[in-house]
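Structure first, sequence second, as always.
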């Protein structure tokens, strides 16, 4: 039963939905969509209805949608999936989709329906929330201050590592305790009062200095800042405490108080500035050294406020320090501030403020300061220069005249592997070695002489090699004396590698196109030669000498056809007649052939893994791959040796190997490793081994197409090749072929035997071929077999002939690549008017454009050129008996 069109009221309701909704028939064509889905695809609903996913979506999205539809139809169960779709601005949009089966009144599945919801914003929010949680947890764990979290009853919920170290308890132990158990009993009443104020909302936070009890029993003085975390009803959920251990600080203060008299004596003589401020912040004492620092005498400053000398930009900080120190009975603080000098300038002082207001002898705030103006200025200059060098995305290295490193920026650390601390002061040649081509002795990485740019091959710390471009310049002192060199370098290994790969790819593409074009035209000629030779054999002279000549012509044409397949193979432009097959069976079947093709002094060993999954490949081409590799191995073992063939299931080959020629990896492979014990290859030879016409054999002993043919067949079959070789150590070539999919299309048989006499065959065949000679002989073969043949020289001509006749065609035999309309386009157009017609494609060369434009989809019935009369008639008869949509 067909899928009915939804009623208007139902889709009016769906049109009001924000989610996208659609309905497809069993063939995957849209029956109805709502407004949201039309907006999602940026098309009108009329443009979508009647179309398929192939016509509306990208190939990848269409394949995924068709797969989900097929699974729903097959299982009868809904399926959910997340789908990424490019939005109008090109940014990714994430959709949550649900596809369900649609059944008729009898329960039979007649189509599918789907709903999609845009969850892009939700995903972005989730990612941001997770990132925020990670940041906050990192801050909590890495804080140098102890941080603890307690519930509303005072029980500890969570603590960081700093807190645990401070009190000596583990996190698990602390979760069994209250905060009050860590405090000294002397602080108990104050703790209760402060926590009650926090719990009742009378205060949001408080700070207090108290005594904590370490697990060992020792006391430590801490500064605690506690804050409340409340719920929406303003009830206390948690209190969070920030704890700083100030035990050492208080010990230092006590020591200072104990040595007051010594301090007073020292302040009179020290070069540092010392002063005492009263509770109001007025200078009541200034050491004589203040005149050396600020140019004012002690008498001039006594009775004044330090705020009168402070730089305006630092006045606020000064006030805060004074208030903080004065309000804390035993407080102290250190600050870096600028003070006015008597000459009108400013000096930077590093000052320490200590509250000794309660000291019976001092009764003031003690200030000890020293002039750090030059140090700060120099540090700022050094810091700016270091930041400037570290900001440069190139390695900056300076050396003195003895080639010892004097500067090493952050990018140099990343590029060469040595830290700045490790590099400074060491001879540059002990850190970096520059290898010069053709020379054994290493060269300095920073060239000598005047400014110049050089390329160097560098050996970094881990021993790996890479190429850098180094621009070196001399460094001169103010007096003009040369004091070293500076080199600025950047890694250009990838750039040089890409340039070489581009040159290689361009060369291979040019040769491949030339070979493919020649083979394509040659196959058309061979088709004519082979067919006419067959005509002569059947109806020509009967003398044996004529029969021998005809057989010679046929044999030469077949051998020429083999050569064209080699040309197409290394150009990856041949048509592979692939099917699911056992790799082990192919190898076992070749054992006798390998034995005959190798010399008697070469032993063959096989280690074939049992229960290998099937692969999808052309068995004839696979045999050619094995024979070509074996022949190459035979020539590499002039004194005999062992050839070992090993099969196994493998993951994608290592893309980092120096001689790997792998493309994008496939999820799973069946691999064949062919290893010889021959002479091996050096890196230069191995890098060219798959190039066409490259050979190390003498004149007349090799065409240079053997391994390039292997490369082309494997790559066109979706596989990879990996090479492991070294001089004197033999060579191992590993071929990786993808595991066959569950529904791999079977091979189309093309029998090359004698012509088949169809007798009373009355089918009408339309032959579409732009080459006149091929068209005429194809028609002749079919006519002699009893078919009614109509000829067309192009796709447009074929459509014209179909439009001018009322007799339907049983079969359309068409070339794939033709000027104007292609064979695939002709087949699509034909099925619109004659859905029962069968299509059989033929070609001597499909080319990259055929696959890129989808002119030969997987599973299409196909016969390659050149073909014999028998092969053609078998293919035609088979196609007429198994007509499917091409």
């Amino acid at each position: 039963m067909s899928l009915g069109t939804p009623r208007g009221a139902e889709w009016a309701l769906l049109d009001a939905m924000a989610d996208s909704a659609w309905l497809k028939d069993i063939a995957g064509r849209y029956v109805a969509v709502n407004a949201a889905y039309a907006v999602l695809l940026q098309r009108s609903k009329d443009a979508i209805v009647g179309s398929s996913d192939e016509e509306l979506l990208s190939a990848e999205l269409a394949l995924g949608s068709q797969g989900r539809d097929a699974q729903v139809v097959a299982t009868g169960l809904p399926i959910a999936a997340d789908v990424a779709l490019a939005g109008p601005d090109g940014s990714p949009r994430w959709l949550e989709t649900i596809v369900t089966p649609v059944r008729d009144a009898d329960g039979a599945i007649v189509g599918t329906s789907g709903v999609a919801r845009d969850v892009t914003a939700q995903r972005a929010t989730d990612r941001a929330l997770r990132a925020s949680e990670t940041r906050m947890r990192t801050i909590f764990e890495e804080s140098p201050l102890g941080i603890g979290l307690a519930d509303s009853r005072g029980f500890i919920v969570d603590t960081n590592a700093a807190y645990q170290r401070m009190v000596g308890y583990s996190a698990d132990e602390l979760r069994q305790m209250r905060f009050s158990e860590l405090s000294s009993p002397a602080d108990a009443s104050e703790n209760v009062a402060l926590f009650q104020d926090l719990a009742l909302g009378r205060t949001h936070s408080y700070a207090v200095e108290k005594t904590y009890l370490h697990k060992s029993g020792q006391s430590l003085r801490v500064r605690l800042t506690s804050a409340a975390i409340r719920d929406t009803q303003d009830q206390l959920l948690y209190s969070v405490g920030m704890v700083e251990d100030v035990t050492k600080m208080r010990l230092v203060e006590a020591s200072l108080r104990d040595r007051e008299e010594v301090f007073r004596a020292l302040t009179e003589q020290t070069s540092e500035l010392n002063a005492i401020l009263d509770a109001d912040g007025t200078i009541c004492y200034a050491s004589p050294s203040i005149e050396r620092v600020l140019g004012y005498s002690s008498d001039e400053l006594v009775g004044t406020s330090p705020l009168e000398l402070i730089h305006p930009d630092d006045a606020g900080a000064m006030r805060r320090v004074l208030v903080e120190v004065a309000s804390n009975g035993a407080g102290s603080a250190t600050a870096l501030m600028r003070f006015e000098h008597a000459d009108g300038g400013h000096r930077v002082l590093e000052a320490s403020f200590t509250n000794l207001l309660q000291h019976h002898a001092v009764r003031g705030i003690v200030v000890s300061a020293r002039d750090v103006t030059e140090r700060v200025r120099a540090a700022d200059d050094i810091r700016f220069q270091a930041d400037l060098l570290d900001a440069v995305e190139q390695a900056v290295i300076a050396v003195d005249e003895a080639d010892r490193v004097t500067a090493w920026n952050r990018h140099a650390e990343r590029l060469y592997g040595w830290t700045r601390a490790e590099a400074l002061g060491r001879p540059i040649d002990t850190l970096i070695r520059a290898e010069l081509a053709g020379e054994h002795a290493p060269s300095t990485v920073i060239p000598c002489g005047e400014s110049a740019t050089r390329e160097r091959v560098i050996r970094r710390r881990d021993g790996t090699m890479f190429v850098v471009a180094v621009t070196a310049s001399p460094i001169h002192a103010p007096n003009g004396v040369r004091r070293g060199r500076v080199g600025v370098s950047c890694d250009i290994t990838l750039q040089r590698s890409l340039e070489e790969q581009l040159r290689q790819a361009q060369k291979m593409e040019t040769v491949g196109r030339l070979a493919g074009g020649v083979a394509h035209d040659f196959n058309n000629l061979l088709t004519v030669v082979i067919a006419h030779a067959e005509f002569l054999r059947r109806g020509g002279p009967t003398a044996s000498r004529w029969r021998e000549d005809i057989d010679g012509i046929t044999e030469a044409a077949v051998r020429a056809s083999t050569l064209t397949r080699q040309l197409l193979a290394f150009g990856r432009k041949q048509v592979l007649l692939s099917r699911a097959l056992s790799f082990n069976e192919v190898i076992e079947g070749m054992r006798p052939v390998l034995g005959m093709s190798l010399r008697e002094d070469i032993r063959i060993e096989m280690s074939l893994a049992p229960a290998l999954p099937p692969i999808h490949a052309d068995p004839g081409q696979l045999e050619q791959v094995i024979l070509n590799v074996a022949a190459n191995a035979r020539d590499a073992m002039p004194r005999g040796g062992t050839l070992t063939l090993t099969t196994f299931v493998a993951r994608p080959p290592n893309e980092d190997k120096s001689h790997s020629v792998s493309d994008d990896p496939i999820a799973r492979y069946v691999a064949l490793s062919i290893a010889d014990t021959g002479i091996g290859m050096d890196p230069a030879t191995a890098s060219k081994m798959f190039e066409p016409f490259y050979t190390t054999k003498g004149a007349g002993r090799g065409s240079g197409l053997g391994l390039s043919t292997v490369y082309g067949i494997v790559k066109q079959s979706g596989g990879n090749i990996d090479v492991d070789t070294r001089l004197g150590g033999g060579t191992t070539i590993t071929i990786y072929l993808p595991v066959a999919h569950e529904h791999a299309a079977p091979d189309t048989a093309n029998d090359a035997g004698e012509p088949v006499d169809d007798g009373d065959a009355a089918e009408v065949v339309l032959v579409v071929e732009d080459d006149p000679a091929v068209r005429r002989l194809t028609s002749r073969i079919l006519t002699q077999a009893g078919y009614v043949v109509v000829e067309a020289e192009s796709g447009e001509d074929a459509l014209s002939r179909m439009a001018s006749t009322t007799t339907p065609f049983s079969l359309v035999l068409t070339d794939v690549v033709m000027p104007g309309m292609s064979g695939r386009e002709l087949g699509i157009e034909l099925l619109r008017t004659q859905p029962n017609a069968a299509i059989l494609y033929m070609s001597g060369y499909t080319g990259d454009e055929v696959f890129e434009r989808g002119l030969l989809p997987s599973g299409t019935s196909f016969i390659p050129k050149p073909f014999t009369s028998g092969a053609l008639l078998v293919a035609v008869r088979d196609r007429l008996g198994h007509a499917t949509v091409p």
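Margin note: The mean pLDDT is 79.
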